Amino acid sequence: MLFFLCFSSLLSSSFASNAFQSTSTALDKAYIIQLAPETEFSGSLSRRDAHITTFHKRAASIEYDVRYEFKNPDVFLGVSIQATGNASDEELLPQLKAISGVESVSRVYSFGIPILPNISAPMDPMLSYSDPPQLKTAAGAGNLGSSLQMGGVDKLHARGIKGKGIKIGVVDTGVDYRHPALGGGFGPGHKIAGGASFITDDGNVANSTDPLTTCYGGGHGTHVAGILGMDSVPGGFDIVGVAPESTIYMYKALDCAGHSVGDTIISALSQAYEDKVDIVSMSIGAGTQSFSGAVDPLANITKKLTDAGIAVIVAMANDAAGTPYAPNLYSEQWPSTETTAIGVGAISNTEFPLVYSAEDSTGTTIQYASVYPLNVSDGVDVYLLDNGCDSNDWTTALSTIKDINNTIIAFGANLAGQGCKATSAGSWAESSITPVYIMAYNGPTTNPVNSSQEDPYLSAYDTPSQGFFGTTQFINVNSVYGVEFTSNYASSGGYGKYKLNFKSSNFTSAPQPSGGLMDYYSDFGPTWHDYTLKPQISAPGGHVLSTWPLGPLGGYAILSGTSMATPYISGCFALVKSQFPGATIEEVKNRLQVTAKPTPWVFDSSILAATPQQGAGLVNAYDAIFSTSVISPGQFTVTDISHTEYGTANITIENTSGSSKSYSLSHQGAGYMDYTLEYQEKNQRAIYGTAAFSQSSITIPAGQRSSIHVSVTPPSDIDPSKLPVFSGYINIVSDDKDLHIPYVGPPYSLFNTPYIKIQNSTSSAVFPRIWSYNQTVSTVDTGVLEFVAENGFGSSLPTLQWTREFRVDVLPANTTVQANNYGFDKDAEYEYRSSAFTPNSTVFGHESFGTLTVLLGYNWPSGNGIFRSDTIVTGSDGGKWAVGNGDYRWLVSALRWGGVSGVLGDYDTWLGPVVRFVSK
Ligand SMILES: *[C@@H]1O[C@H](CO)[C@@H](O)[C@H](O)[C@H]1NC(C)=O
Ligand SMILES: *[C@@H]1O[C@H](CO)[C@@H](O)[C@H](O)[C@H]1NC(C)=O
Ligand SMILES: *[C@@H]1O[C@H](CO)[C@@H](O)[C@H](O)[C@H]1NC(C)=O
Ligand SMILES: *[C@@H]1O[C@H](CO)[C@@H](O)[C@H](O)[C@H]1NC(C)=O
Ligand SMILES: *[C@@H]1O[C@H](CO)[C@@H](O)[C@H](O)[C@H]1NC(C)=O
Ligand SMILES: *[C@@H]1O[C@H](CO)[C@@H](O)[C@H](O)[C@H]1NC(C)=O
Ligand SMILES: *[C@@H]1O[C@H](CO)[C@@H](O)[C@H](O)[C@H]1NC(C)=O
């Protein structure tokens, strides 16, 4: 019995914020088409071509342009297209799916470099000084190697361990390989030994063998390549990359604005696979949308690369663009969320590498951050704006200033109450005069906002990328010097009276207040729903000096982000791999993780930063190689092992040294977090679990291994509906080294916790509930809700946890199904009015008329409101029909974590009161 359209809307009025909806948009009418790998085509390349040709023939009735062709069946066999005709997306998707040989059709989602204040889109992304290439340096006695020292990399370089023999593929904006520090050339025998380009500078499809990028907006890839492998060269700064003897393959897949789309990334990954790289380093993010394998082919491709022995190392992304601090748990971006990817968090460099001094007309020294010293004659004027983000202020300034070539225009950045970031300035486009020098002084802002605690972040120096303000030169003054500067400017009488002198051109480095701690923007894991620890590990990413496209602005830049930490970890991976060529990805990752150093929380050094913020902690590549204890796992999730066992793991310790070693095991808690704690509240707490060991000390003879059982008990009295996690480390201390295994997990059994929100209170709303628009909720008490369906009725059926299946089925009211929650008094009597129809399907082995909704996949905790004005259900055959008048009950079911679909006991269930449909 089939009926017409049914109106059913499932509103997600959830407490999960919209930040978790897609932040990625799809390219209009563009599709990635996966072709079935029929065996006869899997052999030669010409046969793969034939396979794609066959698709084009079969799709002849559709108008489209080909974007890319993917010919490696080991990675992805298929084609991506963009439709050009008038057909709509709704028409095209089924047409494409119906073509014989098409296995799946996916949309082409957008990707980008993780946005940070100092690397977001510059004023003119295409600005490029390709001719003649220029390189500049500066003299000084600063510590340019601090970031390498932080990770023990300098000690490996001293021993000649520099990543020789390892091939690292980088998916990024391309590279300026003319840079002498990057080898000055391209191709076999060069540092940048290979690669390809799949995108033009302005974002169109490309397919060339040359990944050269010279635009300043596309400098990201040049910076990343430098962190991996730059050399110290005459005429440049005396700094080197993490693995300077590795070979780099650059896959240009992002344009000068830092944008890309999914099929461009697939092209890059396929080529990296063909080139047999050891590592793929991706400083990219696609937003927080969940691309499960069923949605985007890239998820599967990440796994295929890992299965083939290629480590995929991905930035967690930076999510503090609009706020002074990364938002909260579960904010890491795809594809770092892939289980097989190694997600990387960012730690602040201990030193701001390049700081120069000026002296003002009152004789006070004002230090400023800049890649190069300001090359300006003595005694320049200073003009101070009220608000650097107000274009009127710039217009006034530029028409007032007499000698623009000898004037610095200054403004406050991050001043309390003003909200003007240094990089939001530059509102001088209206004026015909362009500033030559600008200076942002940082305000003494507290951070997070609304806090009286001293700011560990924003008082530090910061610089945008070279060329961010076009050819206008930018310098930055920290909040300490900012106070002196503004006060001296005012007491001297301001513009025309106050001057800055730039006599000294030697740099020093300045220690950073947050040095060695997690940086403010680094996104938090773990992965939602399954609580895999992300990031796996962290590395210096804040204020890193590295190479930049050549030009009059000098060929170096200081940038911050998980984008910078990612090549650092890729380089460390290469260093370890070069010493253990036979090691698997998991073995190298474990070495890096257990030898990393847990770091304190930036706002309270008595707490270790939560592992979903720092992962294993600060990498130490030296210890990863020279540790003579090999430990696994490198991380674990504390959660249900079975429906009755929670929080256990087995730790294997292998003593690879030449003599017997004693180990002692202990537990150390790290920050607790939950989804209701905002950054304003400084979102970590000293709430810890405990751990018990089968043996808390053990002696292992040379060359032997042993296994120890650990059982973690979570802190008690935590409300699971806040989606909390607790975290910590298992410390394994031997005579020579402290090793640590990070863990994270929900402080409760995911299987046994309530999934359906049950609330029966007189003071607030009752959940779950079903109501008619005409009746009051009081009918709940009678156990019979009498509805004229056409008048409309609604419901609120909130869930408390992630669930892979949420369903509402309509059962005869006299059903005998056993639920764990009931929305009525089971002993109350009522007169059963049977439906005129017979239930024609079953759910959990019980008679059912059909379903109101089934949500599969990863569902966020949600309000789950169903609103209807009919009695239509969907039968098990997919047909819709009206059940008409009679007595029914709704069975609401949410599949528990680790539960099996279709097994009643694996769901949290609620059987509702009688829903009695009557005629008007
Ligand atoms: C790039 O071009 C080559 C040669 O024409 C072709 O074989 C390959 O499939 C193309 N790659 C992509 C991703 O389109
Ligand atoms: C500046 O640095 C250069 C090179 O390191 C050194 O020779 C010179 O003495 C320094 N000048 C000052 C004023 O420190
Ligand atoms: C990814 O792999 C899974 C398991 O093999 C498969 O079910 C799914 O269809 C694949 N997704 C895509 C988009 O290819
Ligand atoms: C400022 O310097 C530039 C470049 O040297 C020069 O072209 C310009 O004429 C100068 N402007 C003034 C007002 O002196
Ligand atoms: C730990 O090892 C024991 C003994 O081999 C095994 O029974 C148990 O399942 C393991 N536990 C985990 C969490 O892997
Ligand atoms: C019940 O609601 C329907 C739809 O809003 C309306 O047409 C009808 O008049 C209402 N009946 C009563 C008794 O309020
Ligand atoms: C809800 O609570 C009220 C007051 O405690 C009680 O009378 C009523 O029976 C409860 N209803 C259900 C469905 O449990």
TrEMBL record:
One of its GO terms (biological process) is proteolysis. Belongs to the peptidase S8 family. One of its GO terms (cellular component) is membrane. Coiled coil: none annotated. PANTHER family: PEPTIDASE S8, SERIN ENDOPEPTIDASE. Residues 163-597 form the Peptidase S8/S53 domain. SUPFAM superfamilies: Subtilisin-like. Residues 1-16 form the signal peptide. Keywords: Hydrolase, Protease, Serine protease, Signal. One of its GO terms (molecular function) is serine-type endopeptidase activity. This is Minor extracellular protease vpr. Residues 640-744 form the C5a peptidase/Subtilisin-like protease SBT2-like Fn3-like domain. The active site is at D172 (charge relay system), H220 (charge relay system), S563 (charge relay system). The keyword Signal applies. Pfam families: fn3_5 (PF06280), Peptidase_S8 (PF00082). The gene is vpr.
